[in-house]
């Protein structure tokens, strides 16, 4: 038994209150090293007097389920309902060779009569406080998102376009180009989005800024004049809500635009500026435009986003800055009834500010959705008091590595997916923001080198995962594009130039997602067949007596798969055809989604 691989941490993603009554526990062990795990548990204060007059702890035990396996580890899981909302517990591990070991708060001890073991040898979950439970808006679980880069979606009001606006789609965009996309253009195409099946729109920044991307905000309380005004935005929100579509805005609170009045006051007045403590200034004088990485030499008189002089970093530990930003966040909720905030460069802002932000926006609207832009493991932002979700780029990369760029094997892909879901609480996984591409990445079709079948496999796999999937505008009609700025091309509205087959496919996969949403949100993911040689991934999602089977054949040849566990009726979810047996054939570079009544 490899004891050094065994890990559990109370009050973490390994032990947490799923809701006010249910406690989730996880244990990690070395891959294929442990035959079974039993949890011994009970209320820490529940005892009974024995014949000797001493008191024995009342406990019980249950076998844990092996929930996931990665390249290195196995993960064991159990859900319990402690009757008094607190728990004392430990793990009995049984190795493949029969070796037994008890694992508790003090490490490993020989296993003996459990009632005689000292209480300090057990893990504790002191009390399941409802206020500490991770809570997220329930509507997110059934939402399919659509990300829009406003300057490139549609020009609905040419009279407000920038002076040097280029004809729509007249060329591939360069970094500083304007094509005239605006809020009215989005309003004009809400019926298109509704018909596609979209129920949430994530908008890149819309506030006043001199650039096309708007990540260098000048005024957070003003809609950029080239996009429209507040009444146009109000109409966008109202018309979206009328169609059952939520609206999430992009908040750029890590930094501000250098053309803002606050930063310009610093540039003008230097040490005497009333805003000097709003920023991370290293030395005076501040010389605008000279800060950053120039000709391979990094010089900093003030901190910025990356080394971008036009984006000075805000000091969110400053109470004035905190009030300024939180007032902005609550204003757009209160006055326009937005449904979510996506937080730019969220990992570089201090945790204390995000906790205050969370409490303020939740108080303003209890079911607001908070998503942080974090590209890496984000467990410490997902404890329930900061964000509900992050931009789920680790999941993105696992899907791309296998289906699109062929960098990893099927078993590595399955292991990576499992590891990803084990990092976070299930309640966080259920609302995570899942995507394949965005304004910050090359488009998925370009990554796939134009291979539409790879894109379909990747999309179908994304939509089969727990969480809330997002489509980047234009993916549904086959738009391509490399890294920024080529991933920000103008949306194609000429149907003769759209990939209508991909559009029909996207509409279908969204419809299936909505039809089976409870299974895809709450259902266990069990791998049925992972075959490296055949490049095959097969898994089931089961919930409340309903099961879906997904078979992804990423190989160059037809593959036959036997589903021995599922002998009742099987239905092809895509075609509606009934299958006469559990023996199915899957063509190359395609997938099957089957429903069974178990």
Helical proportion? 10-25%
**CATH hierarchy class name of the largest domain:** Alpha Beta
The CATH topology of the largest domain comes to TIM Barrel
CATH architect. name of the largest domain: Alpha-Beta Barrel
Main sheet record? 8 strands, parallel
Distance between the termini: 36 Å
If helices are DSSP runs of H or I spanning 4 or more residues, what is the number of helices?
13
The tally of beta strands, per DSSP, is: 32
Runs in which pLDDT lies below 50 for 5 or more consecutive residues are none
Range of strand content: 25-35%
Strand order of the largest sheet: 22-21-20-17-14-13-24-23
Brief characterization of the structure:
This protein has 598 residues and is of the alpha+beta class.
Features of the shown structure:
Immunoglobulin-like, 598 residues, TIM Barrel, 23% helix, globular, 32 strands, 6-stranded antiparallel sheet, alpha+beta, single chain, 13 helices, 25% strand, 4 domains, 8-stranded parallel sheet
Description:
The chain has 598 residues and is an alpha+beta fold. The chain folds into four domains: 3-132, Immunoglobulins (Immunoglobulin-like); 138-254 and 316-517, Glycosidases (TIM Barrel, Alpha-Beta Barrel), CATH 3.20.20.80; 261-299, no CATH class; 523-596, Golgi alpha-mannosidase II (Immunoglobulin-like). Helices cover 23% and strands 25% of the residues. It contains 13 helices and 32 strands. The strands form eight sheets. Strands 22-21-20-17-14-13-24-23 form an eight-stranded parallel β-sheet. Strand 18 and strand 19 form a beta hairpin. Helix 5 (319-336) runs parallel beside helix 6 (351-364) and helix 7 (393-404) packs across helix 11. The longest helix is centred in the middle third of the chain and has 18 residues, at 319-336.
């Amino acid at each position: 038994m490899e004891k050094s691989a065994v890990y559990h941490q109370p009050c973490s993603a390994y032990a947490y209150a799923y809701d006010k009554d249910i406690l989730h526990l996880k244990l990690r062990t070395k891959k294929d090293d442990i035959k079974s795990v039993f949890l011994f548990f009970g209320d820490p204060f529940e005892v009974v007097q024995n014949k000797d007059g001493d008191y024995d702890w009342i406990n019980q035990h249950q076998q844990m389920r092996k929930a996931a396996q990665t390249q290195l580890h196995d993960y064991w899981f159990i859900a319990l309902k402690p009757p008094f909302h607190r728990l004392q517990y430990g793990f009995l591990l049984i190795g493949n060779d029969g070796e037994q070991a008890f694992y508790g708060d003090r490490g490993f001890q020989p296993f003996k009569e459990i009632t005689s073991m000292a209480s300090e040898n057990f893990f504790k979950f002191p009390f399941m406080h409802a206020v500490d439970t991770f809570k997220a808006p329930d509507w997110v679980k059934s939402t399919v998102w659509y990300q829009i880069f406003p300057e490139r979606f549609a020009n609905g009001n040419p009279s407000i376009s920038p002076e040097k606006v280029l004809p729509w789609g007249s060329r591939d965009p360069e970094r500083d180009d304007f094509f005239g996309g605006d809020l009215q253009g989005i309003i004009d195409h809400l019926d298109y989005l509704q018909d596609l099946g979209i129920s949430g729109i994530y908008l890149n920044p819309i506030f006043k800024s001199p650039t096309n991307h708007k990540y260098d905000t000048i005024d957070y309380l003003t809609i950029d004049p080239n996009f429209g005004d507040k009444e146009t935005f109000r109409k966008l929100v109202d018309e979206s809500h009328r169609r059952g579509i939520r609206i999430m805005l992009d908040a750029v609170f890590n930094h501000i635009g250098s053309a803002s009045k606050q930063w310009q006051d610093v540039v003008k007045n230097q040490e005497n500026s009333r805003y000097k403590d709003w920023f991370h200034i290293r030395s005076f004088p501040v010389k605008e435009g000279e800060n950053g990485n120039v000709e391979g030499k990094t010089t900093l008189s003030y901190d910025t986003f990356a080394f971008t002089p036009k984006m000075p970093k805000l000091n969110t530990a400053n109470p004035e800055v905190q009030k300024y930003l939180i007032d902005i966040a609550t204003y757009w909720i209160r006055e326009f009834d937005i449904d979510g905030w996506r937080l730019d460069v969220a990992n570089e802002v201090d945790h204390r500010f995000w906790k205050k932000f969370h409490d303020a926006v939740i108080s303003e609207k209890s079911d607001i959705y908070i998503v942080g832009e974090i590209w890496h493991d984000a467990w410490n932002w997902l404890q329930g008091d900061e964000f509900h979700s992050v931009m789920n780029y680790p999941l993105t990369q696992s899907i791309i590595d296998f289906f699109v760029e062929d960098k990893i094997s099927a078993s590595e892909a399955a292991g990576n997916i499992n590891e990803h879901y084990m990092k976070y609480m299930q309640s966080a996984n259920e609302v995570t923001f899942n995507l394949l591409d965005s304004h910050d990445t090359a488009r998925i079709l370009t990554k796939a080198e134009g291979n539409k079948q790879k894109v379909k496999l990747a999309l179908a796999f994304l939509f089969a995962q727990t969480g809330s999937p997002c489509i980047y505008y234009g993916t549904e009609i086959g738009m391509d594009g490399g890294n920024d700025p080529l991933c920000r091309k103008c949306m194609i509205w000429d149907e003769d130039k759209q990939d209508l087959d991909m559009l029909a496919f996207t509409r279908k996969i969204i419809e299936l997602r909505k039809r089976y949403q409870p299974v895809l949100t709450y259902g266990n993911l069990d791998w049925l067949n992972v075959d490296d040689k055949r490049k095959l991934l097969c898994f089931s999602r089961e919930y409340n007596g309903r099961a879906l089977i997904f078979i992804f054949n990423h190989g160059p040849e037809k593959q036959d798969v036997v589903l021995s566990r599922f002998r009742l009726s099987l239905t092809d979810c895509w075609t509606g055809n009934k299958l006469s047996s559990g023996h199915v054939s899957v063509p190359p570079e395609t997938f099957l989604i089957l429903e069974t009544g178990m």
